[in-house]
Write a structure and sequence with these properties.
The chain is α+β, with helices and mostly antiparallel strands. The protein is built from seven helices and four strands, in the order ααααβββααβα.
């Protein structure tokens, strides 16, 4: 069977992608081996340590995809648009609102004893038990009754005025 030029191009791209994947796998194994040697691990302990390490972090030495470098609410806290300990509300029709609290570093504590989350959307998901939506437009400050998106817009407007 003869391939058209477009099919041949796609086939070449596929082969190149496979080469890249294989090179990354090889590099990942080398890094894992070096890491295990540096940690003085052998046998089963080395395998457990290799599994524990995120492959993406080993290859990129970067934070996991989708995790912000700093909590986005930190800027709002630093600008005093939100205060540490301030209550965030997620209104619900006919029911009391869900509550979360802003931490000093800008993360959001959704329930006492739970792991704080970094973003408003992650807070929405945690508060609703897995539903996904834009937390910026849904969560409101209990103090000003404005959404986080409105507070962010105000901050951007003020920062824009302060810029030369």
């Amino acid at each position: 069977m003869r391939l058209t030029p477009d099919q041949e191009k796609l086939a070449n791209e596929f082969r190149n992608a496979e080469k890249t994947i294989n090179a990354r796998r090889k590099r990942r194994k080398e890094i894992a081996k070096d890491l295990a040697e540096a940690l003085g691990l052998s046998g089963a302990a080395r395998l457990l340590e290799m599994r524990r390490q995120s492959l993406q972090q080993l290859l990129k030495n970067d934070r996991p995809r989708g995790v912000p470098s700093e909590p986005p609410l930190r800027r709002l806290v630093e600008a005093s648009l939100l205060e540490p300990g301030e209550t965030l509300l997620l209104p619900r029709r006919g029911l009391p609102p869900f509550e979360a609290h802003v931490l000093e570093d800008g993360r959001i504590q959704c329930a006492e004893g739970s792991e704080p989350v970094a973003t408003p959307s992650a807070a929405f998901t945690a508060l609703t038990g897995g539903r996904h939506a834009d937390g910026w437009t849904r969560l409101k400050s209990a103090r000003s009754w404005r959404t986080l998106a409105q507070l962010r817009e105000e901050l951007e407007r003020v920062e824009g005025l302060a810029s030369p």
